[in-house]
Amino acid sequence: MATEPIPEDNHLWAAMMPEDKAALRPYLIRRHLPQGDVVTRAGHDVETVYLPTTADLANVVRFVDGRSGMATNVGREGVTGLAAFLAKEPCGWDVEVQIAGDAWALPADKLRLRCGASPALLQLLMTLTHNNQVEAAQNAVCNSVHTVTPRLARWLLTIQDRTGRDEFNLTQDDLATTMSVRRTTVNASWQELGRAGGIRARRGVVKIVSREVLERASCECYGALRRWTAPF
Known about the structure:
The chain has a four-stranded antiparallel β-sheet. The model has no long low-confidence stretch (mean pLDDT about 90). Helices cover about 45% and strands about 20% of the residues. It has helices at about 10-15, 20-25, 110-115, 120-145, 150-165, 170-180, 185-195, 210-215, 220-230; strands at about 30-35, 40, 50, 55-60, 70-75, 95-100, 100-105, 165-170, 200, 205-210. Helix 6 (about 170-180) crosses helix 7. It is an alpha+beta fold. Strand 9 (about 200) and strand 10 (about 205-210) form a beta hairpin.
């Protein structure tokens, strides 16, 4: 159980009413989530939800031929396993740690129980559900319309927003899997953003050097999502 107040770094938690925090705090456990860990598997019940503070987790859809792609991702703005507060149903995708970092684990049944008693908490989670739907739709169209470099710039900006960090462990192979493209394609876009002064990469570590450069390189989807999914 949590022995100290949760940091307000998670925006959902920061927006909760004091009585909701008091009801949920005893069940929180702080965890460090390593990159690549799958915290919830497709077809399994969501037993635990995570409120990230510095980690980023992706909802990953996998295909029988071994390919996979990210539908949406969750960082410090929200909570994983959103459907768990609506009903106890199996998850439709893997929830995988995309960027290693810290998060607070909470039993999903405790969240469901509290939602039944708190209209204010229910409204917060409904807002996040709406934002998640908007993001999934925007991602689907973006992936079919926009080229890799602006998509990569948008993804990097989003990761920085959702982790509060400008440097993280990330390889081109990781990105190729996340973006469902060839590694050579990612490499070309990586170098393009590097030459422009947006990022600096070395041995599996990428550092965002200039948000301004990345914002200029990004597709319009980054601005659209910031307009339509600011939660609280």
